[in-house]
Amino acid sequence: MADDLERMWADLAPVGRSAASGGYFRQPFEPAERELAAWFAEQADARGLPVETDAFGNQVAWWGSDDGTGAVLTGSHLDSVLDGGAYDGPLGVVSALAAVDLLRERGLVPRRRIGVAVFVEEEGSRFGQACLGSRLAAGATTWEQACGLRDRAGVALGDVVDGGPSAIGGGGWLGDVAAYVELHVEQGRDLVDRGEAVGVASEIWPHGRWRFDFSGEANHAGTTRMEDRADPMLTYAMTALAANKQARVSGQRATFGRIEVAPNGTNAVPSRVTAWLDARGDTDAAVAELVATIERQAVERAGRDGTAVVVTAESVSASVSFDPSLTRGRPWPVLPTQAGHDAGVLSAAGIPTAMLFVRNPTGVSHSPAEHAEIADCHAGVVALADVLGELAGGLAGGTTA
């Protein structure tokens, strides 16, 4: 099991990696991410696991046969944010395959079949909708809603993948899933502070993405007096500062991490600034209040600047509580997560769901500095195998490899 884990990790390490930053660019349906999808299919084939691919491109490799009580699903995603880390997503996929290997070494013959899934466009880094693959699979988003989404180059999702009106959802392959367990690198320092290699999630904070369209008047940067300007960049800048202050005061999270500017000239006052707010909080009400306050302050500032602002919710996910019965009796610390995951989508769809975390010594994620020690990765595989084995009906409890 150990050799297989490290070999798989070595296979993935160079794919989509930037020589300049060391970060990863694995955007959905682009060459690096497609190479990883092919790699997954090869790994499944080498293990004799048939792979099912749905109309959107989600993959699932099946082990065992259906006994009529529903499948146990695990896995994660292989896409990344722009200039992201190596572990967010791929660690869950590699660990799932390694867990199957370990269970076979233990002699398990699963009563329920076990699936290893790879969900597409989890990060939303290309088409702007986080967890899009799992949302389509669960029926939380329809193909009609998704096919018109466009990337930064203006390419529509429907022109990249032929999901069609019957793209999998609702009554598709997820309808047979009785439980889902996702392993993920921790995106914070809780396990570091606790001195623990593995933890289990209690919940996902509610979160979402809102688009702020600031409009003003383009003009000459040199000849236009400051008092004569209608500068949307100024309104945006003050809104970003207001978001930071409101999040700090309320103990929540607010980030403007992406902007587009027109005409985007050094010597021109902009006519338009589009900015995307990522907001997260410990309750649904806290997120709603946070975004409403930021929007109100943006509108007030626009009135003083002679500009205008329109706010559009693009993706909003309510709070999710995971099923403690799936990991009951385990000695792992329990912690919430502020990051969104496919596990949250499946849980919201009514599938009993759990998440395991592997310690990240840097506490950094969505960055090349994201990391997990190989010994902790091995501990994560054992923990995942223990849970899957019990849920699949082949083991009464955890053992060590």
Automatic annotation (TrEMBL):
Instruction: State the taxonomy lineage.
Output: Bacteria, Bacillati, Actinomycetota, Actinomycetes, Propionibacteriales
* Keyword Cell wall biogenesis/degradation among record annotations: no
Q: Which keywords fit this entry according to its UniProt record?
A: Hydrolase
> Known NCBIfam families for this protein?
hydantase, PRK09290.1-4
**Know the name of this protein?**
Allantoate amidohydrolase
Which domain of life does this protein belong to?
A: Bacteria
Family membership: Belongs to the peptidase M20 family.
**Which Pfam families does the record associate with it?**
Peptidase_M20
Kindly indicate whether the keyword Hydrolase belongs to this entry. Answer: yes
